[in-house]
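Training component of the fellowship. As part of building independent skills, the fellow (R.M.) carried out the full modelling exercise for a liganded target. The chosen ligand was 3-isopropylmalic acid. The inputs are recorded below so that the supervisory panel can assess the work.
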Amino acid sequence: MAANKKLLILPGDYVGPEVMDQVKRVIRWMESRRAVRFEVDERPFGGASCDAYGTPLSDETLAMAKAADAVLMGAVGGPKYNDLPRDLRPEAGLLRLRKEMDLFANLRPAVTFDALLEASTLKPEVVKGLDLLIVRELTSGIYFGQPRGIETMPGGGRRAVDTQAYTESEIRRVAEVAFELARTRRNKLLSVDKENVMATGVLWREVVTALHREKFSDVELEHMYADNCAMQLVRNPRQFDVIVTDNLFGDILSDCASMLTGSLGMLPSASLGAPDATGRRLAVYEPVHGSAPDIAGKNMANPLAAVLSFSMLLRYSFGLADEASLIEKATQSILNGGVRTADIMSAGMAKVSTNVMVDVLLKELDKSAA
Ligand code: IPM
Ligand code: MG
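Fellow's submitted model of the complex:
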């Protein structure tokens, strides 16, 4: 029997807890059918933590997240918390968690499922077989740079400042993760910047190019401006394998990439820190979708992005590739079988609720493990 693996669940807000309840069923299935055991803890995070402790991320929760082998998060934020002071908003808790755990590499895959081609707003022939991975720098750049703020100018009127800043080492470490991931895939890396107008873009390109020459010359490297990349993503997304970019561009381009696949409700993500001497790295896994307040409490949310985030966790943090594959294959089969939550519904398919989707998934897992 494998040693216990410490898992911290942060369900978060609105649909977060609903989808996490379903993931817990998959976790229990794994424990009852496979030789794995998890030591699971759970803490409020985001708005739920504001309600309980007056802060979106308590020190205790942060300490538990750092001590866990992996963290699985639902989604945070929503209308109930929009009027809180900015530093008490759920989003601030999320940014602080990323920063304090130093989760600088954010992996956002965009993969189309054949069964869901119809759900994409793009033509099926453009997105069929799409499998790209965006590696977004997550702990620096304009979301963290100083100075920042809104000030009143001497002559009246206000002025807002955000600062985009990157050090060489911040660029290098995220590029390194991206090069390594490219090697495990189709060996192609695209680095995205605005080298034509931004100093950070000039440094970004220099550092990535130097690292390529020094350690990764076997990987095919190209550079592209961020605006062109946005256009290419909707024109011909299959030209891409791994894309590495900064925090802001990665935020925007990954939303765009996710929509190519037809549903945010299907996409997992991972945020990773640097490996320590033993190879262990801090990690948070979460669905790409938000807390979806409009459908919260209605048993309508698609639980598959959260379930697939758990399978990503099994693969990257726990080295359980077989278990991860079981979940991924079962997901493919049930989609081929025609079950759909509302977000991916199309004519002739069977519309199911959040928990029924996972009922069907667990049955499929039973079959594959029989
Ligand atoms: C994301 C989100 C966050 C971000 C928000 C909620 C702070 O959009 O994870 O992409 O901008 O990073
Ligand atoms: Mg975003």
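The panel noted the following from the submitted structure. The two ends are 19 Å apart (CA to CA). The chain is about 40% helix and 20% strand.
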